[in-house]
Structure formats: structure tokens, C-alpha cells
Amino acid sequence: MSRKSHPSRRQLLQISAAASLLPLMGMARAQAALPQVEVWKDASCGCCKDWIAHMEKNGFRVRMHDTGNNAIRARLGLAQQFASCHTALVGGYVIEGHVPASDVKRLLRERPKALALAVPGMPVGSPGMDGPVYGGRRDPYAVLLVQRDGSSRVFQRYA
């Protein structure tokens, strides 16, 4: 007959401590799984910097190019009608303007056949356009899913 061994108190504490770290390890792994966002913007644009901070706060790593965004937007095939103050590339998609990180995460999760997400212009209340200088004002806007043929549809609305 074999004798069953029971874990010591010390072993139980170690197992418990390791188990308590599992949720944190899962969050770190989920954040590490987010691809890098490459952003082209004007060097002096404050709202672009605020959008980048929003993306970083939501787990994205960001690489910036302070070269402006008109040339890269055209090179990536996004029409001027969707233009904003910064253009990004993440996971093979173009991200134009003040798109919320939650919509970028949804795009990467769902992986639709599309070219881009875009928030044309600079709507007040969108990420990066929501600082104290705007006094809490929030204008309605839509995030557009842009197809490779230039057509678009609403991906998400914000009121």
C-alpha cells in the first residue's frame, strides 16, 4: 500500500500565491498580444499626442513619426474624405483620426475585410479631443469602416 503525501503548509502557501498571480499574468499576456501601432502625425499636434496616450493606456505600444500624415495616408490608399490629423497602421489596418481604442480592439478581434477605421475631422469628445480645454463637451460622431473600394459604413456611433 502506498502512502499518500499531503502538501505542507509552505507548499500550500506557494500554490496559493502562484494561483493569485494567474489573472495578472493573463492580463499581461493579453496586453502583450496587442500589435504595435505606428502613427504618423505633425510634431506639434497636441490632440495626436493625447490620442497616443489613450492608445497606450489601453495596452497598445506606439511608434511615432513626426513627419505629418498626408503622404502616408495617400500611400496607404485612404481617400482624403476620411482625413484627420493623424494616420496609424495596426494589424494591417489603417486607423485614421480619433478612433477609440475599444473600436481598434474590436477591429482586430473581428478582422473584417476592410482597409481602415476612420473618424474624419476632429470631433470634440473623441479620444484625444476630450481634454479639459473642451469643458466636457461631447459632439456626436461615427467611426467608419472603410472598404478597399472607398465605400464605408458605420462601425460604431457615439452620441
Report a brief summary of the structure.
The chain is of the alpha/beta class and about 160 residues long.
Write the layout of secondary structure elements.
Layout: H1 9-32, E1 37-41, H2 46-57, E2 62-65, H3 70-75, E3 86-90, E4 93-97, H4 101-110, E5 116-119, E6 141-146, E7 152-158
Parallel strand pairs: 1-2, 4-5
Antiparallel strand pairs: 1-3, 3-4, 5-6, 6-7
Q: Total helix count?
A: 4
Question: How much helical structure, as a percent, in the residues?
Answer: 25-40%
Any idea what the CATH architecture is? 3-Layer(aba) Sandwich
Secondary structural class: alpha/beta
Numbering strands along the chain, what is their spatial order in the largest sheet? 2-1-3-4-5-6-7
Q: Which spans have pLDDT < 50 for at least 5 consecutive residues?
A: 24-31
Strand percentage, roughly? Answer: 15-25%
Instruction: Spell the H/E element sequence.
Output: HEHEHEEHEEE
Overall outline: globular
CATH level-1 class: Alpha Beta
As for the CATH topology, it is Glutaredoxin
Tally of distinct domains: 1
Q: What's the mean pLDDT score? A: 88
Using only CA atoms, what is the Rg? 21 Å
What kind of assembly state do the chains in view correspond to? single chain
**Total DSSP E strands:** 7
Distance between termini?
71 Å
Tell me the major beta sheet. 7 strands, mixed
InterPro entries: DUF411, TAT_signal
Signal peptide: 1-32
Keywords: Signal
